[in-house]
Amino acid sequence: MTAASTPAFATPAQSQDSESGSVQPIIRVRGLVNRFGEQVVHDGLDLDVLPGEILGVVGGSGTGKSVLMRSIIGLRTPDAGEIEVLGVDARSQAPDDRLHIERNTGVLFQDGALFSSLTVGENVQVPLREHHPDLPDSLRYELALLKVKLAGLEADALNKLPSQLSGGMRKRAGLARALALDPPLLFLDEPTAGLDPIGAAAFDKLTRTLQQALGLTVFLITHDLDTLYAICDRVAVIADRKVIAVATLAELEQLDHPWVQEYFNGPRGRAARSGASDRRMSAVNPGSTREEA
Ligand SMILES: Nc1ncnc2c1ncn2[C@@H]1O[C@H](COP(=O)(O)OP(=O)(O)O)[C@@H](O)[C@H]1O
Ligand SMILES: [Mg+2]
Q1: Which of 106, 142, 274, 289 has the most CB atoms around its CB within 10 Å?
Q2: Is ligand 1 within 6 A of the CB of residue 66?
């Protein structure tokens, strides 16, 4: 796939900030404000997502996780604040900037959001048709087949309608579509919600495998503690209309905040932690360059 004219994100050499030696974030949010009428969802939210990491995003229901994602990908214009994603301003309406973000991000929405009247193959081809209209049909078909297989589905899923698939297969089909344009940055909104524990663990494993094989950065909204412990490099906690902490799970477990304590040190948190060493899917820390930097 041809990349947009601007680089997807800075190369390691470019992204080194020569003064501080720190790595440039792939997503940088500062002072974000989102309101719906009287309701203030975000009030001065800051967040950095680093290249090559799986960042878990957690918070109680209705704390604004999905609204944050929509703001970052430019589907919602925030009321205030700055968002830079892949080197461009997420609020920009300039066609080149919109195209740059669209081509370099894949999104699996909370409800899957597949077109119900299209087959899986046709769904996966939607972004290819939109962004690469000159591709011959046969090549588009081959690419869709490749993505479907990459997402762990059998080739025969290509000709099925979303309604003919199980919940887990629908998530995989959504993932195949999100990966259609080979984006370096992937957004997953509650990908394991509604899956049974085995299906959820399999999806986690797929996410980790693809992230490592393709070098993805993943913004992963979840309330699934098993997912956090199995695959996330760092976790951002949304509470009190802000990101109150971004840290490793070991660090978060120590944080003195009522929601964090209840979530991580309640019975479910303890159970997830005790099973974590078995499930931890990678000894490799793909974000390790940031520590070396
Ligand atoms: N389009 C909208 N219009 C009005 N309120 C909204 C809209 N989208 C989200 N909200 C409200 O913003 C809050 C945060 O929503 P959301 O980001 O979806 O929460 P979650 O953290 O569960 O993903 C919720 O109270 C929700 O009702
Ligand atoms: Mg949500």
Answers
A1: 106
A2: yes
- Give the structural domain span for 154: 53-61+92-292
pLDDT tens column, 156-178: 999 999 999 988 899 999 999 99
The Å distance, Cα 225 to ligand 2 centre, comes to 16
Q: Greater confidence, 274 or 94?
A: 94
CB-based contact 191:108 (threshold 8 Å): yes
154 phi and psi angles, rounded to 5 deg? -75, 155
pLDDT of residue 160: 96
Task: Say how many Å lie between the CA of residue 75 and the centre of ligand 1.
Answer: 13
User: Is residue 257, in this structure, part of any structural domain at all?
Assistant: yes
> What does pTM read for this prediction?
0.88
Torsion sign (Cα): 248, 251, 257, 260? positive
Domain total for the chain? Answer: 1
Give 189 Cα–ligand 2 centroid separation in angstroms. Answer: 7
84 lies in some domain = no
- Nearest bound ligand to the CA of residue 57: 1
